[in-house]
Amino acid sequence: NAGVTQTPKFQVLKTGQSMTLQCAQDMNHNSMYWYRQDPGMGLRLIYYSASEGTTDKGEVPNGYNVSRLNKREFSLRLESAAPSQTSVYFCASSRDREVDTQYFGPGTRLTVL
Amino acid sequence: GENVEQHPSTLSVQEGDSAVIKCTYSDSASNYFPWYKQELGKRPQLIIDIRSNVGEKKDQRIAVTLNKTAKHFSLHITETQPEDSAVYFCAASNYGNNRLAFGKGNQVVVIP
Q1: Residue B37's beta-bridge partner residues?
Q2: What was the pLDDT predicted at B1?
């Protein structure tokens, strides 16, 4: 099992450009999450999907959109990137929305110039 | 919403000594408390977790204790080794809402 995978690993954007971060899991998990990690700020939840077909805002959703394409895939889109969105983005999944271990992907390091 | 705080922000210990990291949480409804370890440039990985019906849990050199009355929980690492050097994140959530609220992390440095 590959676990949680993310693409790309690194990305540089110019202000105003758009891009989609891809995430997939092969553990048959129901719930998936997108976090951003900034120095000294810990992990902050952007959006999550408790189950296929549902998505909800997290702590810092502004400037992002998500799509739960199917049970395996959960994408994060930046429509018009801003320098404040420079961060490391982690996708995670868990078996269920009830309290359970979250497994993280390797992360995407995004720089917006 | 839930607010989780970690102290101290950086902890340096001699190899072989113990390290203790404490977290406090604000929501008395929280009942799930995991600890994640993140090595430099890597993804966070769960190392131990505790639920509110248990006061202490151990796994080899790692233990977590929970004080629900005071709303704090602590990670204890005994006989520290260089590979324990990492950032450790605590988190809290409650049943029915697996939205983990993370603390800002503690840098642990084990000095050989």
Answers
A1: B45, B88
A2: 78
Distance of CA B97 to CAs A50, A58, A100, B93, Å? 9, 12, 10, 7
Q: Do B34 and A100 touch (CB under 8 A)?
A: no
Indicate whether A65 pLDDT > 90: yes
Question: Is there a contact between B89 and A43 if contact means CB atoms under 8 Å apart?
Answer: yes
Mean pLDDT of all residues in chain B? 92
pLDDT at A83: 97
**Share of chain A residues as helix, strand and coil, in percent rounded to the nearest 5:** 5, 50, 45
Q: From A33, which residue of chain B is nearest by alpha-carbon distance? A: B99
B57 interface with A at CB cutoff 8 Å: no
pLDDT at B21 over 70: yes
Q: How far is B108 from chain A (nearest CA, A)?
A: 14
Contacts of B92 in chain A (CB under 8 A): none
Predicted confidence at residue B9, as pLDDT, reads 84
The pLDDT of residue A40: 80
* Residue A89 to residue A32: CA distance in whole angstroms: 13
Residues from chain A that touch B103, judged by Cβ atoms under 8 A, are: 42
- Helix%, strand%, coil% for chain B, nearest 5: 5, 60, 40
